[in-house]
């Protein structure tokens, strides 16, 4: 029951200040404080090729630091979107990812592609692409080192502006993936129109408690027949991995390999898997 009338300005329509509103405002305040204090850290979860067993990429997953605790994004992304702060948060995450990519370029992880999650709100922001390309240029990086993950939800309502932004991103050389695929089912015909390279099968089909084989098989078939790469998230056991590989999935992400790790820990993880030194001092 709160209407925003500008940054930090609110109009209360009800005299009673209910608990929910109170809680929402408190969360918003925490978020603003964290942005002011630069308290966000990005962790990286490796993506593994089923063919080679190698780390081919990493997903940037943001955490909010509060004292000694790390708050997971499930607790603040929605708030950020609703409070008009997601643009700022995305900028923080993308900048950290660029800094990391620039460092990784100098050593054995030079080919690792970093995936960044995008909120639909960012795609509606008119200067989003200019911002992103300016940031990249500042680090001397090129778009093909990055992938943006969008969810199907973005496409519901098929906003022509979003399609246009996605086309521009793809033309610039960014990769695009459809995240949590299979959970926001709307209309499959959009898959043809979209410049998306990769389908990421939602982990709810993979790991609770066992593989939902018919669904997974159908998604893999769909992705492959559209010449897309098919990635699964939430791989937790070796049995799941072998089943998914047999079904034709290309890459996987999950606790079987590693959770999202601080950047240096990811460097060590990669070094251990390939048996060479990290070379990042
Ligand atoms: P997502 O993009 O689908 O990311 C995958 C989530 O699944 C991550 O949770 C990851 O830690 C978790 N996960 C990975 N492997 C496994 C597994 O084997 N088992 C289980 N149980 N979980 C696994 P996390 O980091 O809490 O992120 C949650 C969601 O928050 C993400 O889902 C994404 O939608 C959103 N998010 C994270 N970072 C950002 C960001 O920078 N920007 C935006 N807009 N959203 C973000
Ligand atoms: Mg994701
Ligand atoms: Mg996902
Ligand atoms: Mg998911």
Describe it.
Residues 24-274 form the EAL domain. There is one protein chain. The protein is an alpha/beta fold. Helix content is 40%, strand content 22%. Helix 3 runs parallel beside helix 5 (128-139). The radius of gyration is 20 Å and the shape is globular. The N and C termini lie far apart (52 Å). It binds ligand C2E and magnesium ion (3 copies). Residues 59, 117, 149, 179 line the site of one magnesium ion (MG).
- Provide the low-confidence segments as ranges: none
Specify Rg, calculated over alpha carbons.
Answer: 20 Å
Topology, number of strands: 11
- Per the principal axes of the C-alpha atoms, what is the gross shape? globular
Beta fraction of the residues?
15-25%
Helix segment tally: 10
Termini separation comes to: 52 Å
Bound molecules: ligand C2E, magnesium ion
Q: Could you describe the largest sheet, including whether it forms a barrel?
A: 8 strands, mixed, barrel
Mean pLDDT: 90
């Amino acid at each position: 029951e709160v209407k925003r009338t500008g940054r930090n300005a609110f109009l209360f329509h009800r005299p009673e200040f209910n608990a929910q509103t109170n809680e929402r405002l408190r969360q918003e305040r925490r978020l603003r404080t964290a942005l002011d204090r630069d308290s966000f850290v990005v962790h990286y979860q490796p993506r593994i090729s089923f063919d080679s067993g190698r780390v081919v990429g990493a997903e940037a997953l943001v955490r909010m630091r509060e004292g000694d605790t790390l708050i997971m994004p499930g607790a603040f992304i929605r708030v950020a979107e609703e409070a008009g702060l997601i643009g700022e948060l995305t900028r923080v995450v993308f900048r950290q990812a660029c800094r990391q990519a620039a460092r990784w370029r100098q050593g054995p992880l030079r080919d690792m592609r970093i995936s960044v999650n995008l909120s639909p709100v960012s795609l509606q922001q008119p200067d989003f692409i200019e911002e992103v390309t300016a940031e990249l240029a500042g680090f001397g990086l090129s778009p093909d080192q990055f992938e943006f993950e969008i969810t199907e939800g973005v496409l519901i309502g098929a906003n022509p502006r979003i399609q246009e932004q996605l086309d521009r991103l793809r033309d610039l050389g960014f990769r695009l993936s459809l995240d949590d695929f299979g959970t926001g089912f709307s209309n499959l015909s959009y898959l043809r129109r979209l410049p998306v390279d990769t389908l990421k099968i939602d982990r709810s089909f993979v790991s609770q408690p066992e593989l939902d084989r018919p669904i997974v098989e159908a998604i893999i078939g769909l992705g492959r027949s559209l010449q897309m790469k098919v990635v699964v998230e939430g791989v937790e056991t070796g049995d799941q991995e072998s089943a998914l590989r047999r079904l034709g999935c290309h890459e996987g992400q999950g606790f079987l390999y590693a959770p999202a790790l601080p950047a240096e820990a990811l460097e060590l993880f990669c070094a251990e898997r390939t048996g060479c030194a990290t070379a990042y001092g």
